[in-house]
Amino acid sequence: MKKKRILFILPSALHIRNFLTSGFVDRFVTKAEILLMIPERYEPELSNRIRKNARVDYIDHYQGSKFRKNALTFFRLASMISRKNMNSTYRHKIRELLVLSKNIHRLKNTLKALVLILASSFLDLEKWIRKMESYFPLQEKAVQLLDRFKPDLVFSSTVIHETLDIEIIKAARQKGIRTMMFVASWDNLTTKGLFLHKPDNLLVWGEEDKRSAIREHGFREDQIEITGTPHFDMYFDKRLIEKRKKFLKKRGIPASKKVIMFAGTTFSKFAEEPLIVQKLAQYYLDKNPDVLFWYRPHPRAIKQFNINDLKKYSNVYIDEKILEKIEMNEQDFFTDKSNLLHYPNMINACIGVISVLSTMAVEFALFKKPSLMINFGLDRRGHVIPGKNTRLSDREHLKSVLSWKGVLLLNDFDSLTSAIDKMLKGEFKKYEKDLQKSASTIAYNTDSKAQDRIMKAILRA
Fold first, then answer.
1. pTM for this structure?
2. What is the pLDDT at residue 389?
């Protein structure tokens, strides 16, 4: 039987992590004839098996012109404004855009948003976007690529608004080649606007994504398949999880410590984050010396991160993988296996997580562990500003998470420390099964079979 020919696109670090680092591509290359499209900078990460069994090309060579990329960015903004009445996330994003700033780039975005809001009162912006997009011709390089390889299917991992794969997807759609996309993260369907070129089939993390795909993007139920995400499969492979004592000992942390993770977000969303870590550290230094905060700044926020501010706190451990990123002056998602394996071992070592807009809330719930969600900010003197910068209840994708037993939304510092004390006493243990069951509606992964489901879906298409 002739093998299916699949053009397989991984546009950025996030997708490289999900599909390449997780081992999916290594397993998949013998199942089909594959042309793997990746950013050229990740070529060294290809295994010998992939080099032997797959063709490789670089997605960088298929970018549009600067004008084209600017147009796509403008279309994305128009789409979000068009969707302002669809869910609360878009309304929140628009409010953020309308805050005046001295920064020229932000001011330009504010002016664009104002023009589009005015236009939306008499124009269907998404219908207009698609009309404008139809005037852009197919990219010749993308057409030639498809003519050379003649794929049966074009598959792309996507966060919807990315532009690197757009020319190939557009050409494939117009040439009648079947397309399939995998939604790269659990919040993409409610936060990133429209699919400019909607695929024939969509693979999603869980039931929550499926509902969003139908409600907000008009997919039919028979076009969607729930698979889970490939990189979470290893989280449930017991062979890969170290004993907690051994994992902590390697880092000089006594097993008797009650370790709580603080999962960071991007500073554009929560610039006061290091202040809250310091405030927590100072509070618990005297109150409970057995508590240790494992701080993991977001990989895309480390250029704004000043390590010296936290060096004086003996009860703060800064995640060593982030320190490696700082030393290498890199700011992006991790794409090597040792880093990916670090996550489940880190979660296993902690009793719970404090987070602001972090996927770690879902990951901890999959491990049956609680999350405390910060819904306040701090001023420069450390005084609490309720709701500042966060407004978690305004994020559509967080509504279900905030309803879970074992996840608390905290509106001030006293409420946060009170919840931490409950965590330390083990009062959330009664929610362990509920947490994992709830998290499985977002990430269908607890059986460790997501990669198998994705593989079958691709080969069946």
1. 0.91
2. 47
